[in-house]
Amino acid sequence: MLAQNGIPTAEDLARVRPTAARLAQGPVAVTECFQNIPCDPCYHSCKRQAIKPFADINDRPQVDHDQCNGCGMCLMRCPGLAIFVIDQTYSETEALVKLPYEFLPLPAAGEVVDAVNRAGKVMGEARVEKVQSGAKLDGTSVVWLSVPKDLSMEVRHFKIREVR
């Protein structure tokens, strides 16, 4: 499936998903990098060594979810925009999804957007909680979305409802 349409299969996602017990402990990085390419900035950015050393630069990143504190340094350094931070402890009903974003205009905190899945299908509404941007982020902004908890492992992008 991934090779034909760019959308990972349920099996692909199961291999990178943190356990339910780990998700219940707080923010954690999820690497949805499914291609063997020469890339390892995520490994070098992780001060906690939660991203395991690569045997070969073409390896895909492997996260030790128990070591990860969800700081997002790897997310900001991933040139493939393939890392997300999920916090299912955000509230009783909502999770926080931090995702890389390289488009303009940037959304504003408080704005309601359409949350979309990996295939671009609208899954529901999300609220922009925070937008991080600046020179330290190398041109990649990080948008924090609050989404219904049951969508936290599905929502991977969003659509701004109206262009300002």
TrEMBL record:
Which SUPFAM superfamilies does its entry note?
4Fe-4S ferredoxins
Q: Does the keyword Ligase apply?
A: no
Q: Which GO terms describe its molecular function?
A: iron-sulfur cluster binding; metal ion binding
Q: Which domain of life is it from?
A: Bacteria
> Keywords for this entry?
Iron, Iron-sulfur, Metal-binding
* One Pfam family matching this protein: Fer4
Record field: transmembrane: none
Q: Where is the 4Fe-4S ferredoxin-type domain?
A: 59-88
Q: Which InterPro entries match?
A: 4Fe4S_Fe-S-bd, 4Fe4S_Fe_S_CS
According to UniProt, the name of this protein is 4Fe-4S binding domain-containing protein
Species name:
Desulfotruncus arcticus DSM 17038
